[in-house]
Amino acid sequence: MTTTQRTPITPVTPGTAANSAVPTARERAGRTRAPARARFTPRTRKAILLLHVISSMTWLGLDVGLLALSITGSLSDDPVTLRAAYLSMNMLGDTVLIPASLLALVTGVLLGVGTKWGLVRYTWVLTKLVLTVVTAALTVVALRASLNEAAAGVLAARPSAGDAADGLLFAPVVSLTCYTFMTVLSIYKPWGRIRRGRRAAGA
């Protein structure tokens, strides 16, 4: 009688070649994730970050200087001091303030787009973006007009900054408050992800 020899069945364990074609749970989860966003190289990111820090600190320093000049002009009755204060403010606005504010805005957007933080993924980043856009727009539109008006007033026969003096005192205070708050956000990074970002990450 011929006996049939049975081939022993080898149990298949996870990680062996026999079940390599079956995707694991981790592999299946990885396939459902969105493709990684393009990021800056470390050297490019550091260069943009350096420009952002320099332009932001320049903007902050200019606001301190404008506030000091505005207080000097509003408290002084000396025509020479009044003229020097408001003409200096106008010069700073023409040559440094607007370029610094726009550069801070552009580099901030680039850092959001090209790094893991994004622009609308985290509440603190979105808050900083909104505040930067608002303060930059007010600097270009409202503050610039007030600086021109004050400069024209002190160049008149009887120097006076006129109604623009109140705006020039108010604008640096608002800008400094916003920038101090944005600095706190950059350091502490509160509030976490925006809800839409959390759903997208868990998809």
From TrEMBL:
Coiled-coil features, chain-numbered ranges: none
UniProt-listed InterPro entries: DUF2269_transmembrane (IPR018729)
Keyword terms of this UniProt record: Membrane, Transmembrane, Transmembrane helix
Signal peptide start and end residues: none
Residue segments, region Disordered: 1-36
Keyword Transmembrane on entry: yes
Biased composition (Low complexity): 1-14
Domain of life of the native organism: Bacteria
Spans traversing the lipid bilayer: 47-71, 91-113, 125-147, 167-188
Pfam families registered for this protein in UniProt: DUF2269 (PF10027)
Protein name (database record): DUF2269 family protein
Source organism (scientific name): Actinomadura rugatobispora
Taxonomic classification: Bacteria, Bacillati, Actinomycetota, Actinomycetes, Streptosporangiales
